[in-house]
Amino acid sequence: MDRYLVFGHPVRHSKSPFIHTLFARQTQQELEYGLAEPAVDEFAQTLRAFFAQGGKGCNVTVPFKEQAFTLVDRLSPRAKRAGAVNTIKLTDDGVLLGDNTDGAGLVADLKSHGVTLADSRILLLGAGGAARGTLAPLLAELPSELVIANRTHTKAQQLAAEFCDLGPVTAQTYEQLAGPFDLVINSTSASLQGALPPLAPALIHTDIAIYDMMYGASDTAFISWAKQHGARQTMDGLGMLVEQAAEAFTVWRGIRPGTKQVLRELKRNLGVI
Ligand code: ATR
């Protein structure tokens, strides 16, 4: 049976096996999908061993995405732009192809929530790996403006400079931000510490869409805060998780699974509904 894995550390709580098992059932593909949690300095050898023993493909999550970028034989254009790999496929001619489906997953999830990206003003909070992976797919949707704000402003400036050939992207400090924005995407890891990015409450209005790339059984700190300040449309990263997985499944198997039912079952599994 074709074997797939997700590599991460820690990875025990990963929902990827759950999601891919449902995709496989739905599309009648025979495969098994497991977890691998190598020590941080043993990722490269564990990855090589997996493919040497017949593995067909894998997902890669924190903290291995940048390392995976350097270990594959070939990169997709979107992985090259993202500087990180979250999906690896062993091609029929024995090449390890590195891809990145995170940004496509975000855009697909935003669209499934009815968020219009064309001609919109987007504010992206954070300038780490998660932000980097979303920039090219977001700019491809032709927003009128994409502003990056980050605690460490120089990192936002570097990112804006790197992607400005693809569209109207600029960097501003949190203090400089002037609304109205149509969509705010939180790619910071602040919610992990229960903290908030230092965003002025005045930037939140009733028609704004709020997206937190984090998720949990209850509202993230950022989503609670945005609701308190009047945001009506809030979304967490669970949908992005399912959509990036669907994109990875499509890369591996050449067949696109449906995501709606799987997202519903995942929510049930997490106790969200
Ligand atoms: P990831 O790969 O998830 O993006 P990362 O590369 O470590 O992780 O980036 C984390 C991002 O969250 C950074 O933009 C970080 O800001 P700095 O560049 O200033 O470190 C941001 N971040 C983390 N905690 C934050 C907080 N409490 N407030 C605001 N931004 C925060």
Automatic annotation (TrEMBL):
The UniProt record gives the binding positions of shikimate as S14, K15, S16, T61, N86, D102, Y215, Q244
Q: Where does the UniProt annotation place the signal sequence?
A: none
Binding residues for NADP(+): G126, A127, G128, G129, A130, N150, R151, T152, H153, T154, K155, M213, G237
Supply the alphabetized keyword list: Amino-acid biosynthesis, Aromatic amino acid biosynthesis, NADP, Oxidoreductase
Q: Which reaction does it catalyse?
A: shikimate + NADP(+) = 3-dehydroshikimate + NADPH + H(+)
Self-association and partners? Homodimer.
Q: What is this protein called?
A: Shikimate dehydrogenase (NADP(+))
Specify the species. Aeromonas veronii
